[in-house]
Amino acid sequence: MKFRIIGLVVALLLVLLSAHPVKAKDVVMSGAERSDYFTQALSLALSYAPEKQYQIKFINFDVPKLRALKLIANHEGIDVIPAGATVERQELVNPIRLPLLKGLFGWRVPLILEKNKDMFFQKQTDVEFKQHIAGQLYTWSDTKILESNGIKVLKGSKFLGLFTMLEKERFDYFPRSMLEVEGEYHRFKHHGIIIEPNIILHYPTAYYFYVSKQNVELHNDIRNGLELAIDDGRLNTLFKQHFGDIITRINLKNRRLIELNNPFLPPDVPLNRKELWLDVEQYIDNNVN
After folding, report:
1. What average pLDDT values come out for the chain (289 residues) when binned by 10 residues?
2. What b/e readout covers 232-244, taking b as 16+ CB neighbours within 10 angstroms?
3. What domains, with CATH codes, occur in the chain?
């Protein structure tokens, strides 16, 4: 009789559970759009926890990155954001330490004036290269990185103004990431600007997903999902779909690599995991300055 009652209780619980399916969990994202790489990477990562029924939602207004990070930290309407790796951000919110862009933001291609297209044609010594002046916004972390490597930087206060300053030859070149340079060239080529064809600068950078330090479950699900997607190749396939053509068009193998240090990179960035980064040997020769 006792076991019969237990069996009936179990059956009743199963009926109740089937009548009340698990409620989907909304994950509110900032700093991305519905169809972009970051959204698809997050969706891929969360797909490895199907029992949670995660659904990605978006805020319908622009939020500055620092403000979004503070909202995440305080559980005020945003759950996750993709952003560059900095010590300051890691003190505020919790990073998933898997570089989403394989370091692409640290691969910098100069925009220059067409009339100066041969500026970097001849191989130059470090000293000679550093005589050229780069242009950057004074608030950008890249500005500090370039200056820490002994590169002269002319700083502006407005992004659009930098293209006018380049046109007027206030500085010599405007280093932009591989993800930005083509779009900006097409937008501003009427200024007589071209993509410099001979060199590429590189310094290590990482782009992470960040969540609240208290949201351990979401942090673990994103991290575990990304690790699984790395292992089975699906994240790399997604990366190539979005950025493979860009990397090919930049023509790395015919560019001279100028390797720079990044003293501001957090010390826990997983630089030793080669599978997480752009495979340089696949694209570039050994002509390193």
Report:
1. 47 48 82 84 97 93 89 95 93 97 95 94 83 94 94 95 96 95 95 95 96 97 98 96 91 90 95 90 53
2. eebbeebbeeebe
3. 7-101+207-250 (3.40.190.10), 104-202 (3.40.190.10)
**CA gap 171, 165 in Å, rounded:** 7
Q: Are 136 and 142 contacting, i.e. CB atoms less than 8 angstroms apart? A: yes
Q: How far apart are CA 271 and CA 171, in angstroms?
A: 33
Closest CA to 211 of 54, 24, 22, 23: 54
Contact 193, 111 (CB under 8 A): yes
Q: Of 101, 92, 117, 90, nearest to 207 (Cα)?
A: 101
Closest CA to 202 of 284, 128, 100, 127: 284
Alpha helices (H) in 189-233, listed in sequence order:
216-231
SS3 259: strand
Cβ atoms within 10 Å, residue 280: 17
Compute CA distances 246 → 35, 109, 138, 201, 237, whole Å.
18, 12, 27, 16, 14
Q: How far is CA 263 from CA 42, 136, 142, 188, 200, in A?
A: 29, 18, 11, 32, 19
Please tell me the predicted confidence (pLDDT) of residue 3: 44
Contact 65, 81 (CB under 8 A): yes
Question: How far is 122 from 153, CA to CA, in rounded Å?
Answer: 22
pLDDT at 82 (0 to 100): 95
The bridge status of strand 54-58 relative to strand 25-29 is parallel
